[in-house]
Amino acid sequence: MIKAIRGTRDLLPPDTALWNFVESIARQVFREYNFQEIRTPIFEATELFARGVGEDTDIVSKEMYTFEDRSRAESEKGQSLTLRPENTAGVVRAYIEHKMWERPGVQKLFYIGPQFRRERPQKGRYRQFYQIGAEVIGPTTAGSESPARDAEVLEMLATLLDRLGIQGWTLQLNSVGCSEDRPVYLEALREALKPVVGQMCFDCQRRAETNPLRVLDCKVPEDQPIIEKLPRMKDYLNESCREHFQQVQDILKAAGVPYVLNDRLVRGLDYYTRTAFEFTHGALGAQNAILGGGRYDGLSEAIGGPKAPGIGFAIGEDRLVLSLEESAEAVVSKPDAYIAPLGPGMNAEAVKLARELRQNSVIIEVGDETFRLKKSLETASKIGACFAIILGENEAKSNAFALKNLATGQQETVPRAELAGRIRKI
Ligand code: HAM
Fold first, then answer.
1. For 415, phi and psi rounded to 5 degrees?
2. For the segment 124-180, what is each residue's pLDDT rounded down to a tens digit?
3. For ligand 1, mutation pick of 49, 109, 129, 149 (most atoms within 8 Å of CB)
4. How many CB atoms lie within 10 A of CB 1?
């Protein structure tokens, strides 16, 4: 038997109703905050992620699905392509390619779609997973660098999670500095690590070489007392980064968005500057980040574009669905009525009636003229229809139908013209 690939999964009904529920609320919130949708390709040039996300990140160094595309001519080398592991780099590429800075104001863009990372699969971690994300990007003159942008994005996320009925989330906030103050901090961190790194876990020893900031992310219990004593970015922020971070917090306080400061929050992508954040949820276990994001003021330049500061986030939709209180049963739309055609020639009548009712926004499921009435009524109940409409030769002729309420068992004869109104009343 051919099965779905490890780390990928089929989303089946009724669960897909939950996914649609989440996406429709997200779209509604994006509309209220004046975000517009962008759709970028699922695969991009490998170089985009190497330069955008960073060669030394886990994502680029070991998790990408990369392949060589066949060349068009024998003599040409194929191009290296990668299934997108995230979508910020793609959006910024599109911003540059289409000179979107020529449009008025800052660009407020959202996307919903699959991403691919070759991680070890476990609950809440998949190789094909889905993100709902957004980016705010533009020239500095349009206000893209302002702490008000950061605060608006964070406040929107709090609104979205509340709107979805997700309780018990925590916004973890940090500032990871900028291209000016971070090198100074990294130097201090490297120095502090030198005498102690030998006592740390293997991953930390590797990270100390390649990406020392990630040492702060280590979860190994034995390493924690050492990490606690390492220098922190907050003590190295320059005046403007410190002021920026303070203003983000002041606006969040004014808007009533709760947050906790976490000076060990460093994120797994290299493009972040200043504000970095995650929303976590207790019920998710080890993979507890429902979403992550931050500011990326140098990303556009890193991939060949003009200065275009930005901030954004991506929600792990798989994890968001896992943390919903709502059950799939509660949001799935059940049929309002099941039409039971009885006897030869009644399939055509059933289609006609179904068409009329559906045009009146009634959700209809249709049986088959070969079914006995008992079978039709049983099926109607099993699929959760509220009513059964019995359609035999007499009913078709008289244009009045037996309407059976499947919850109460009550049956009445209803003229064709009143049918939709009567069904929708329930
Ligand atoms: P990220 O933190 O790598 O950030 O991913 C965002 C979210 O995607 C995570 O918090 C998690 O919920 C979900 N996620 C990541 N990997 C997996 C996986 N293997 N399985 C299931 N869910 C996963 C980014 O991707 C950035 N592009 C976010 C961003 C946008 N920053 C600025 N703008």
1. -60, 145
2. 999 999 999 999 999 999 999 999 999 999 999 999 999 999 989 999 999 999 999
3. 129
4. 2
Contact 289, 193 (CB under 8 A): no
Shortest-distance atom of ligand 1 to CA 131: 8
pLDDT tens for each residue of 223-261: 999 999 999 999 999 999 999 999 999 999 999 999 999
The C-alpha atoms of residue 381 and residue 250 are separated, in whole angstroms, by 56
Residue 292, token pair as written in the block: 């992550």
CB neighbours of 97 closer than 8 A, spacing ≥ 6? none
- The answer to whether residue 286 scores a pLDDT higher than 80 is no
Prediction pTM value: 0.94
Q: From the CA of 348, how far away is ligand 1's center (Å)?
A: 51
Q: Residue 133 CA: which ligand 1 atom is closest?
A: 30
Q: E strands along 164-272, which residues?
A: 169-175, 260-261
Nearest CA to ligand 1 atom 23: 316
Which amino acids bring their CB within 6 angstroms of ligand 1? 86-88, 117, 119, 124-126, 129, 131, 133, 135, 268-269, 289-294, 296, 312-314, 316, 318-319
- Cα–Cα nearest to 155, from 279, 295, 281: 279
Tokens of 333: 């739309």
Type of residue at 95:
Y
Scored b (16 or more CB within 10 A) or e, 154-189 reads bbbbbebbeebebeebbbbbbbbbbeebbeebbebb
Amino acid at 160: L
Q: Which amino acid is at 74?
A: E
